[in-house]
Every structure is written in C-alpha cells, then in structure tokens.
Amino acid sequence: MGHHVEEATPDVDVQESHRACYDLFLSRVVNFVKGLAVAMGREPGPDTLEAMTLAAMDEARAMTIERLYGALARLEHLSLAMDRFMEGYDLLVMPGVSKAPYPIGFADPQRPAPSGHGYWVEEMPYFAMSPMFNVSGQPALVIPPLEQNTQVPLGPQLSGRKGSDALLFQVAAQLEEEARWQDRRPPVHVSD
C-alpha cells in the first residue's frame, strides 16, 4: 500500500493518562446525570441508575478543586508530550484493545465495587490505550482486524496528529478496501 512503518513508542506514562481521564470523567458526571434526569423527568437513584454510576457520582461529589486542577495539569502534560512525539509521524498504530474481551457477566454494572474507581481499575486492562487519546486531543479510531485468526475481533487502533482526522479515515478506507471486511463474518454473528 506504499506506507513506511517503523516501531516507536511515545515517552508518556499510560497510568497518568488513566488517572487524568478518570478524574476528568468524574468532574462532569454529576451535572451530566442531573441534566439527563431533568430531560427524562426521572429522579436519579438506585432505581434508575447502575451501581457503577451511583458510585462515580458519590466520588465526584467528594472531588476537590485541587484534584481537578491536577487532572487538567496531567492532561496538558500528556497532550504536549504526544504532540512532540507525533511531530515525527503521521500515524500511530497500536492494539485497539489490550487483551481479549472479558467473559460475559464480568462487566455487570450492578456488581458490587468499593467505588466508581473500582470499576475503572477492573476494566482498564481491556482498553489500556484509549484514555491516552481521550485526554490528548488526538483523533483515534479502531478498525476491524486485518486478519481474523481469533474467535473475537481484535482490531488495531490508529491515531494521528491533532487535526488529522481526514488522514485517519483515508487510511482506514484503504485498509478496508484491501482487507475486504464486508466479505467476512466471525464464527458467531448477529445475523446468524
């Protein structure tokens, strides 16, 4: 396809991106839920929300301004580090998920957890790279696997420089044409 590929790793702390992403998510969850409650005419509570959301709301209400400013500082640091890294590259290719999907029932949103953060910690190993791009401001997308050699699809994630959304879609379209995704189905499919 004419692309030059080389191995490279950004010098960033992935765990730092997880902390920033979680804290920034928390900073908005209460107002988001209140807005939905008003729009839907429902009172937020155990009868209308998952345990995970209720736990996150409790943690959000206890969040300090110092914690929020710390998350914003981490976001700025990560964003600048990724900007510097991407100066030398058009695209970054990495796993779309960090490991095969969890078993059915694992992600039950009503399961007990010590906090909203407890859910985050349990599920983060499955999508370890996503928070980096949720907070860095870079465009990213996950495409279907180029070759299907597992029972579940494990596609790669592409990310680019800020503002390079069109390039990501162009490369994804090239890969789609080459891989012929539309002609393939996993062993178990919703249309079966």
Query: How many β-strand runs?
Result: 3
Largest sheet: number of strands, sense, barrel closure: 3 strands, antiparallel
Q: In order across it, which strands form the biggest sheet?
A: 1-3-2
The CATH superfamily label reads: Amidase signature (AS) domain
Provide the domain count: 1
Poorly predicted runs are none
Helix content estimate: 40-55%
Keywords:
globular, Amidase signature (AS) enzymes, single chain, mainly alpha, 47% helix, 192 residues, 3-stranded antiparallel beta sheet
Q: If you had to describe this structure to a student in words, what would you say it looks like?
A:
This protein has 192 residues and is mainly α. It has a single domain (14-183), classed as Alpha-Beta Complex (Amidase signature (AS) enzymes). Helices cover 47% and strands 7% of the residues. It has six helices and three strands; from the N terminus they run H-H-H-E-H-H-E-E-H. It has helices at residues 14-40, 51-61, 65-86, 116-123, 130-136, 165-179; strands at 91-95, 140-142, 156-160. It has a three-stranded antiparallel β-sheet with strand order 1-3-2, covered by helices on one side. Helix 1 packs across helix 2, helix 1 crosses helix 3 (65-86) and helix 1 packs across helix 5. The radius of gyration is 19 Å and the shape is globular. The two termini are 33 Å apart. The model has no long low-confidence stretch (mean pLDDT 84).
